[in-house]
């Protein structure tokens, strides 16, 4: 997705990097980043279920201007931007210092679902949460994994109890363009992993398929590849 998305348009130039921070799911396990978004509008933060992209799309532009003029907000913002820039390199990570000979050799992590945050509804339960935690820990350690899973374009369904006690299902649809997901082609994942690890023949009709990447704190590493078949 480009920088011209809705959440980018109303941002003052001084804090324009908020859009990039919001699209990097590293914020979801960074207490300072969550506090920064909450400071913008705490009520709206809770109403959007802690979704920074939704927050930036809906917040009053006057409030954003006030944040850009707030020294405390700008100080924390600058520190987060600097930290994110440092994380763009795996040079000083645990993996790079412990296994320098394996740098640049990504590991394929196949799982049906990845529970990274509720704003990216590509999971339904414990398996997805566990896989998401693996990705987060790998990101912190600098382990270059690429997760390959499924993107249910109609979302997962919820089960709920009616007032009369009967159970009913409700489909949860979502618009991927409103999430941090980014489109890429399956050939790019093949190139990242190497033909020996992920073959084009692993997919039916490979030329018609794409994947979406959720870029972690370090671009080029710890990416989440999603197979967007409506299954």
Rg over CA atoms, rounded to whole Å, is 19 Å
Structural class: alpha/beta
Fraction of residues in H or I helices: 25-40%
Series of secondary-structure elements, N-terminal to C-terminal = HHHHHHHHEHEEEEHEE
Biggest sheet statistics: 5 strands, mixed
The amount of beta strand, in percent, is: 5-15%
Separation of the first and last Cα atoms: 24 Å
Q: How many strand units?
A: 7
Count of helices?
10
Summed up, the domain count is 2
Shape: flat
Mean pLDDT: 77
Give unreliable regions as ranges.
195-231
Strand order across the largest sheet: 1-2-7-6-5
Question: What do these coordinates show?
Answer:
With 231 residues, the protein is α/β, with parallel strands linked by helices. The longest helix has 16 residues. The protein has 2 domains: 81 residues, no CATH class; 134 residues, no CATH class. The C terminus is likely disordered. The strands form 2 sheets. It has a 5-stranded mixed beta sheet with strand order 1-2-7-6-5. It is flat, with a radius of gyration of 19 Å. Helices cover 37% and strands 15% of the residues.
